[in-house]
Write a structure and sequence with these properties.
single chain, alpha+beta, Nucleotide Exchange Factor Grpe, Chain A, domain 2, 3-stranded antiparallel β-sheet, 3 helices, GrpE_head, Protein GrpE
Length: 190
């Protein structure tokens, strides 16, 4: 009996050891599974973080592109409104030139004085309307030649002006606000 008891006791110890080992192995497997799950979750979280950052960067680029587009279209609208009359004003410059020529060649006798005065009033009225739209005549004589504002049609010798200075204006040049509407035709000293 003692042997049986010892044997039973040994068997129970073996069983307890086996159960403990099995429990330890199960616990180790659970720990490995948890560690693997954490690693997988960590990698997944890292990947999701990267995707979120890419989406955020794309959203910021789209927002910046939209802001640039909005500013550009607003600027274009302002320029269009500012210079919308440039074609009409440009076409009226020849009318303005003809009025000036008519006033220069008008006869000075008493019979045509009233007619010349009326033409002069119409000319001043037209000139005032164009000035209210932003039209200004360029001052050219005595200024250095600038190809952005002047169109040289001839070079002349001049004792009065040094080289590269506008000596005579053949046709007036005009600015509409801050842009050249028509360059002045000029003679330049050489």
């Amino acid at each position: 009996m003692k042997e049986e008891q010892v044997q039973d006791s040994n068997e129970m110890n073996d069983e307890a050891i086996n159960e403990t080992q099995a429990a330890d192995e199960a616990e180790a497997v659970q720990e490995n599974d948890a560690a693997f799950e954490e690693a997988s979750c960590g990698e997944a979280a890292k990947r999701l973080q990267e995707l979120a950052e890419e989406a955020q960067a794309r959203a910021l680029r789209v927002q910046a592109d939209f802001d640039n587009f909005r500013r550009r279209t607003q600027k274009e609208k302002e320029e269009l409104a500012q210079y919308a009359t440039s074609k009409l004003v440009g076409e009226l410059l020849s009318v303005l030139d003809n009025f000036e020529r008519a006033l220069v060649t008008a006869p000075g006798n008493a019979e045509s004085e009233a007619f010349t005065k009326g033409i002069n009033m119409i000319f001043r009225q037209l000139e005032g309307v164009l000035k209210s739209e932003g039209l200004t005549a360029m001052e050219t004589v005595g200024q250095p030649f600038n190809p952005e504002y002047h169109q040289a049609i001839m070079q002349v010798e001049s004792e009065e002006y040094e080289e590269g200075i506008v000596t005579e204006e053949v046709q007036k040049g005009y600015l509409l606000k801050d842009k050249v509407l028509r360059p002045a035709m000029v003679k330049v000293s050489m």
